[in-house]
Amino acid sequence: MFTSINPATGEPGETFEELDGDGVEAALVRADAAFASWRVSPVEQRVALLNAIADRFEANKAHLAETATREMGKTLASAVAEVEKCVAGFRYYAEHGPDFLKGEEIALPTGRVVTHWLPLGPVLAIMPWNFPYWQVVRWLAPTILAGNVGLLKHASLTQGVAALIQQMVSSAGAPDGLFQNLPIKSDKVSRIIADKRVVAVTLTGSEGAGAKVAEAAGRALKKVVLELGGSDPFVVMPSADLDAAVKTAVKARIQNAGQSCICAKRMIVHTQVYDAFAEKFVAAMEAVKIGDPMKDGVEMGPLSSVEQRDTVLEQLERAVAAGAVLHGGEKIEREGAWMRAGVLTEVDPEAEFAKEEIFGPVAMLFRAESLDDAIRLANDVPYGLGSSVWTNDADEQARLVRDIAAGMTAVNQMLASVPGAPFGGVKLSGHGRELGPWGLHEFMNLKAEMRGGAPGGWRGA
To answer: How far apart are CA 444 and CA 22, in angstroms?
Structure first.
């Protein structure tokens, strides 16, 4: 049994029955049957379904957004923006996807090769609560377009959202079994990964969860894509527009109450502008407007759960014990998962907590003595998901993009996922890519059709 808890009030909401073993087996049977027909469906049919699902999301935007806010605490404005992003994601693949499915012809001395992008089968997605619609859609839209079918294991916190996604897809006219929400707990995941009817798995979550899923997929020799944690650097050099950098740094740290893998978490500021940046940034973080996430004008609501809030507070206690100075970041004494935004200064880069991801609205502030030092600090963590760099010097921009070990770097802007750009990381932030043609092709068979050679012209391996 799953019970939604409103993190703004601590009050329980809807309950959802957990799917038992027989229910999981029935779902796998339906997925297998759905793939047999969907794999050969016309691309035009897939595109029409994507547009129909986008229409359903758009028509139900307010209800979808309110459900997300009640279940995991993001502001209603950001929940609405997330649903709108989902609409854009479905429409992106509907518009551009058919071109991504086209193969190519390659002339060779012995003949020619024609390539084909073909579907693989049912794909299991294990998705988190922090962007409960968008995380699913950026996997689901290319899954549908590819001719694959989808099985969703969503986070326990957002079972209401998961049920609504199922409702939107089904009401858009999707064939039975094409997409199925599986309200299950983690103990059933390994069985599904091992099942011969499931061909691949994708997970967005912690590195611990990623390691377990990768191990299970490895034993079954199945493809896996992992989008894991991040402790993204936000590098500010002397030539940057300081006011713009500060304003963006605040937004990049408190979006989703700091609960985003690509939130800017470590502010690395050149010593020439460190003091000015620190004064403005600390003041702005302490002034963040916190309140009822359903109301207009609120910048930050509660964290997703009391447990998540307390995990962040424990990290801050260790940071202060190690000599860091905390500005703001206090627990708010009221029902729910509340705390204030804050900044840690005087941080020892070698301290254990400084290498961790703080999944909450508190930034770490570091002083860099030079460009090389900024790059060293940026890379001095086990993660490599995103990064944001602020400089108007073209040579510095080129160095930072080249030398920061991350899957993505935003130049003079906040990093965000967009449908047409590859999304993913390196190091403990995972492997594989989502979005764009790259996310589509991750779970497809690139098949080579060989033609035109003289008899016996193709040599064996």
So the answer is: 29
